[in-house]
Input
Amino acid sequence: MIPPRFEYHAATSVMEAVGVLGQHKDAKILAGGHSILPAMKLRLAQPATLVDIGRIKELSRIIADANGTTIGAMTTHAMIAASNDIRQRLPALSKAAELIGDQQVRNRGTIGGSIAHADPAADYPAVLLALGAEMHAIQITGSRTIRASDFFVDLMTTALKSNELLVDVRIPALAPRSGSAYVKFPQPASRFALVGVCACVTLDDKGVCAKASIGITGACASARRATATESALLGKKLDAAIIQAAAAQAASGMDCLSDIHASAEYRAHLVTVMTARAIQAAVARVM
Output
C-alpha cells in the first residue's frame, strides 16, 4: 500500500527536531525507517509530519566509561553488534542486536527507533529491563530520564510524550562477578521473538546469587520482568535444579499473547524453557 501524504522535515540538530515536534503534535520521528515506514504503508500510522533525524551525527555513537555505556538513539543494530565495548561489557545486548532480522535490517534499523516503536516481539526491551537501562528524552523546554521499567507501557506504547525525542540509552556498568545473556525462540519468517529472555545475575564470592534480573519479550503485550523467578534465585547457589525450579515460575501472572504464530499456552511454555537457558548462560559468564 501507499502511505498517506505527509510533510517531511530533515532535522540537522536535536533542538531543531524537538522544535518541530513541539509545533506539530501529530509529528513522528523517522530514524532508520524499519518500524514507522511499514506502519505507514499499512496505514496503521498516519502522521502528518515526519521528522528525519538521520543527519544528527551526535545521536549515532557508543560511549563506554567506568559508570556504564551510553548508546545514541540513531546507533544501528549493526554498530551495536560490532562494538567490542558492548560485546565485552554487555554481551546480552550484543547478542540481541546480532539476532535482529537480517544484515540489511541491522544496517538500517536503530536502537532508538526499535524501542520507541515498542513492538511486543522486539528484542531490546527484555535486555534493557534486565540491565536496568535508562532512556534520556529531550523536549523544547527540558529533558528527563525514564527507567526501562517505566518506559515500556503497553502494546506499541511507551512513556515518551509526543513532543519528546529519545536521544540515548544509558546502561549502568555491571557489578563485579556478574554475567548477562540473551536467548530467544524466533518466529522463523520475521525473526522476531516468539519469546526472548535476558538474564543478568550477580554471584558473591561463595557462588550464591546476590542479585538477579530477568526481562522477557514476545510473551505479552509489552516486555515484562519475571519477578517471581528473580526472587526464587536470590540467596541460592544456582545449580541446574534451582535454575529449573525458578524458571518454572517465570510465566506466573503473565497474560501471554495468543495469535497465528503461537498460542498463549505455548508462549508460557517457551517462557519457562528460554528463561532457564538464559540464566544458565548468564551464570556461565560469571564463572
The chain has a mean pLDDT of 96.
